[in-house]
Amino acid sequence: MLPTTIRSPPAEADYTPLAEYQSQTPESFTDGKPILHYHLAGAKATLPRSQCGSLAVFPQDTAAAPNDSNDGEAAEELVEQTVDVFATSENFIIFSHQAEAGVSIPYPSISIHALKSVDSSQAVWMQLDLADGGVDDSDFQTVELTIIPPSSSEANSAQQLYEAMANCSDLHPDPENEEDDDNEYDRIVFEGNAGHEAIEGFTGVLRGVTDGGLPPPMPGSGGWITADNVHEYFDADGNWIGGEEEEEEAEELGEGAGRTRPRDELEKGDDVNGHDSAEDPESKRPRVDNGDDA
């Protein structure tokens, strides 16, 4: 997302003022004009001379800015242009009528912006990333641009411009950060030791088996529970239903295992525990009739 050169000056009528936008409910949040968060006319933009030619607003023959600095070390020579500034919901725009050119800057290209003191007044300094390949690109290039409000503007105009840029930047998050968030969790993680012995001195580290392998994360799972096999261990309501090993163990016990037999199924001659009294005489108990003498 690189800055784009424009040749026609933008106009305030091309945008919906922020105050107007906030005062009513729009018919659509996706259609309509971009929102103008802040407009500054007649501002002064400065750039190091070594960076001239990187933006259409500053051609190679741009006039140098007067240097009133009394610093012992010679500062890098700056060039300047008078520009109109538009902080919109889509892009950050500066246009120079003198250069008959402007630049529309996507907010992700503004890597840093901050308030800066220039000649006893506040200005907005920013660093632009003009490379489209990230920090590892061999053509990595940055530009340092400073916007100084005119003396006729409001006393806190630099602060207002800075806040408008910050608010608009929040509307355009870095695509690389979005991808990192999407891939933050690539498997299901269960807390606890799942029946395995924890290693003393470590949190969440379990002791493996004798062959050096890792213990399964849940009893009977036999391996990691991922999005591909989670249905084998949990039902739609999140209840544990076990894995194949538990099902195999149930089949090996045979039909009727764990089943309680009702009394009417007991054969005649069986005691309440299901034993055949004829085969097990010791299980018989003498019958005692009420009222009989001992």
TrEMBL record:
Instruction: List the GO terms this entry assigns under cellular component, sorted alphabetically.
Output: cytosol; pICln-Sm protein complex; spliceosomal complex
Question: Looking at the Swiss-Prot or TrEMBL record, what is one Pfam family this protein matches?
Answer: Voldacs
Q: Which GO terms describe its biological process?
A: mRNA cis splicing, via spliceosome; spliceosomal snRNP assembly
Query: Does this UniProt record's set of keywords contain Cytoplasm?
Result: yes
Chief location bin: cytoplasm
Q: Where is this region: Disordered?
A: 241-294
Q: Where in the cell is it found?
A: Cytoplasm; Nucleus
Among InterPro entries, the record links this protein to: ICln/Lot5/Saf5 (IPR039924), PH-like_dom_sf (IPR011993)
Which keywords belong to this entry? Cytoplasm, Nucleus
What segments bear the compositional bias annotation Acidic residues?
243-254
Q: Which Gene3D superfamilies match?
A: Pleckstrin-homology domain (PH domain)/Phosphotyrosine-binding domain (PTB) (2.30.29.30)
Basic and acidic residues composition-biased segments: 261-294
PANTHER family hit by this protein: CHLORIDE CONDUCTANCE REGULATORY PROTEIN ICLN, METHYLOSOME SUBUNIT PICLN
Q: What is this protein called?
A: Benzoylformate decarboxylase
Q: Tell me what organism the protein belongs to.
A: Hypocrea virens (strain Gv29-8 / FGSC 10586) (Gliocladium virens)
